[in-house]
Records
---
Amino acid sequence: MNRKRNPGGARLAGSFSRRQFLKSTGAVASAAAVMGIDFPAIAQSKPDQLIIPDAGGALRDAYIKAHYSTFTEETGIKIVPAEYMGVAQLKAMVDNKAWGGGDVIALSAGEAAIASKQGLVEKIDYSLIDRPKMLPQAAHDDYCLSLVAASLIAWNTKKYDQSTAPQGWVDFFTPGKFKGPRGLWKNATLTMDIAAMGAGVPKDKLYPLDIDKSISALKGVRDDLVFWEHGSESAQFLIDNQVDFEFAWNGRVYGPKKNGQPVDYAFNQALLDGDAMVIPKGSPNQYWAQRFLAHMMKAKTQAALSELIPYGPTNTDANALIPASVQANLPTGPDNFPKTVFQDFDWWANDGQKAYDAFNAFLLG
Amino acid sequence: MRKKKIWTPGRGYLYLLIPPGIFLCLLFIWPLATVVYQGLFQPSFGFGNFTTILASTTHLRVLLFTFQLAAEVTVICLVVAYPVAYMMSRAGDNMLHVALALVLIPFWTSVVIRTYAWAALFQRHGLVNDLLVRAGIVDEPVKFIYNSTGVLIGMVQILLPFMILPLLNAMRRMDMTLIRAAEILGANPLRVFVHVYLPLSMPGVTAGVLLVFISAVGFYVTPAVLGGPRQMMIAVLIEQYVTRTLNWPLASALATILLVATTILYLVYERATRRIGSALNMGRG
């Protein structure tokens, strides 16, 4: 049967009425027919739902309010959030043509670049998206960022304030300049980038990444480093004063700061990446997947998202729709954006292995 | 005329093995074979992936550290679990039930939660350090975690039931008359222990040691959270290749090396304990 290529049909819990069967087979048949052509001019029969794996938690709630529910209002297609699917699961899905796991998938930008390099994703239909208005580092041929997140320096306010805290990565990585334990993510990506900046590499000359400089910066402060594995740990480290300052993601420290915890942060030399939306290669629901992806890139929905969580929009038109008080917390805000630099996802997809190997060797000492 | 085969219970049991056999083949042997296949045949046939791994000092150091840590955890578990299992095997019913609950309830709690509980207890301003500093025993917080100490404490606590339960099982099934016989024949407590009790408990020791060691070799969360950067287990590297750099052939090769190394260690251990067992053996367990 067509169950594998027929996620809409296979998912029905109860009866599988003839109408549903005909509807879904019709969708598959027309999808198969137009697979060879670039983008279908004829609308296919609509699927009942699209499955969107995302990061979950507060981000999913925000996605639901800003993107998912508005898409359902416009098109009538239900959006079903699913558990986060990493690039490894995406590869397993595409290699085995096991559709039903996700129609449009939210990956981290670095993962999306790897997926693109390995040919696991479809090209994005930019006729549906206003590409000139998108941030150039966000809109790639195979993947498109839906939000901008910042990796920055956060500190415990009992020890430092805005003027006394480390002002940039050079302060972070200069031995002896700031005393005390400091937190870092136990992962090569993002950490090696900021370490290179800590060695003095200017942010506009960051890529191709000078791995040796990153390692020497890390080695300089080795004894003061405390590593965290998960984002939630990073927030806890500051609150519990396990570290005096650290590398953290702005989304993780915004909440505690707002709730009155002794946490503060600054966007100086922040490194930007974000959630990237991809469409698995060969997916049967491509027509509507492209439209959903385009919907997530609209200025209006992105502005709504930024008001719910402190991540910036990738559609520059959205900035006009966001009030100034909210902009102050966003990596894309007018005061913050000039100080930041985007990670080069393609460099990491092509040469990341070397950085990982060097980082592992550094960890072992 | 064909002679009718007589149905014996023995043959019946053999047929009962077919469903679990199919289960094992489909869900265990086949996936394992694909992993080994990926390591050997992709991107092209050859030992390229294996040479990449064995030529890199990072990989070798991590492999060595993994086995070394697993061995340390196993020894500590054995030393701690043996007296506990002994006490439990000699306890009355009520005491035994309480003791079992104390062992099993943490056992059923998620590994991740227990790991983070240890982290919360032992962190710089956690419960233990707070007590120590306030009591004046130390001036500065002691570094309990993000080093080997933290990892050992966490892993031992998590793997202890795997050692206690097989030991308990072996000890309870022991024929205590053999012990009394040894005492009657004039052996002092030490000789009774070394020559009678210990060999009789060997099956339990073997089972516990194997369970703990093999589990410890594959541990990921506990060393990652409670350990420092130097406490890197092989599972961390495999995870990196599978999910972060998407280098599945290399990950498969690494997993295969782990499998082969563990199997070799198991075979060596089997031969060693068989020799010791026959040297000390005075009766069946």
---
Amino acid sequence: MHIDARQLPDNSLIEGDICIIGTGPAGSSIAMDWMNTKYKVILLESGGFEYDDKVQDLYKGKGTGQKYYPLRASRLSYFGGTSNHWAGMCAPFDNIDFMKRDWVPHSGWPITRQDLDPYYARACEKLKLGPNNFDIKFWQKEKPNMNPFPLDSSIVWHKIWQISAVSGFAGGFNKAYKDTIVNARNIHLYTYATVVNINANDSVKEITSVTVKNHAGKTHTVKAKHFILAGGTIQNARMLLASNTQAPKGLGNDNDLVGRFFMEHLEIDTAEMWLLKPFPTDLFNWSPIWCEFAITEKVQFEKKITNGTCGPMPLAWAKNSKPRMETWQNEDPRKSADNMFKNWDEAGKLAAKENQGAITRAFSFQTRIEQAPNPDSRITIGPEKDELGVPRANLNWALTDLDKRSIRTINKIIGEQVGRSGVGRVRLKDFIQDENDMSWPEGTNGGWHHMGTTRMSDSPKTGVVDANCQAFGLSNLYVAGAACYATAAAPNPTFTLVALSLRLSDYVKTKMGTA
Amino acid sequence: MKRQQFVLLGAAGIAALAVPSYWYYFTDADYDPVLARPEALSLIWEDAAIRDIGKKYKAMPAGESRQRGLVNALSTLKTKDSKATAEAIEQQIKKDFEAGNTVMVDGWILSKTEARQCALYSTTPQKQ
């Protein structure tokens, strides 16, 4: 069922069993998991079914520290959330990503990879992936010509991604699931229902309701037994910090952790790989799978680096394309996307002219690497408020020396392995050659992967949510999505955040007695 | 012998020693040109690039700048014929990478052996 909250009488009361705030992959996956149950699900979406400038304006915010994309343009506020922009890349986290690593401060999750495995299987269904198998050996049997490079697999391995059929290119969750959700008997989707405050009981131990507003001037109250914040990493933290009339530091923020540890994936061109002769493989052709060179757990322990991967792109295209941090700077996300794709098209034409049909032997490495958790990399709220009266979120993006050292080491290791294999030679770009240089170039991209602002831990002293994604100190408030990540891992976050959200859904069902 | 003649004769002797040293190494019957030919790199680099890398390697603080030293180091791989020598060099390059015996020259991750080859090549006469 769909209701446009602008059409409701002012000060309407909306009641349900579970209230999910946000319709991106996290919120929508949870909502669909409750379909055909006896429970009434209230699903709140700030925007409508299409892009709306006024609603998108609510996402404006300031950036400080390392140069970042405009906050207004780095996520989307309409049904389906940022999946409307999503490239569709899906790969599970590795075992090491959940481990406490003594060289990575603040690392270690209160859950393991094995805890998530059953949910990865279910996430495959929501994300319309192929079989839940990311082993290169499986794909070599499935598809022809999936030839890996002859690298020492005890040092460098081939990590596989699947490309979701629910990507932004295919219309995201919006196109895939709008009808499913709207037609679900027990899901009540309210569009134009922006949460402006989370209200707790007198002892601030339980959430009683949320207040929603819209640009039509309407204000409504939503009551439920359980509330799940699924508005994205930045917005989830913002809402907790802004709900500060009963808790001056913000809800769930007694230990000043909400908003801290904002993490991204650094995605930067780092090196060139020149093959001595053409290497026949379709592993790097994007469809149906994608592959990147990854560093084994053993080597990460030895070298004390963070986790990251290198994906090869044709060099002629890469050197003619501008960094995304340069092309994605328009506050309008549509214009930013247009700028980026236009630049890629131009790069493609220049590359074709250069190559003149020759088989490509020269590649650029794009390294995607986890940012080490850094408490100074954070979302805060400032004095400026948006049109609905909510303090705006601001980002200070801060990187560490470990990030720089890791990116250099990963590329050096892969360079050595490529050389050893006799396949080619690798040249590191200038900015990672000098071991003592900890600076970052202007073109240091993020992947638009927002993580960590309500991190998961086994103690409220070190986290905002527990192993079940329940907010410490609040009996019925949960956070769904990558905001709960304790570390960022190597691959794109969406597959794991859907898995984690489905796990949270099961937990809430257990509490409701409907598991 | 008068002093002036001695000086002149001495100068001639110095001049004899100042004849380009590559002449000595590269015309020596024992020298195999394969030592200064980085085969793998020649598949991705032209002559000028190999020389450039060779010069950069020689200029590095830990680089080997002396021609004699380079020839001596590479000559340990010399065998009975050029083909076998080339194979021995290829094997040594692989061992270098396996053992982490690599250098970074202008960002390139190279085997020490092939860096030496580039360095030695950079001392040979350029083709006209």
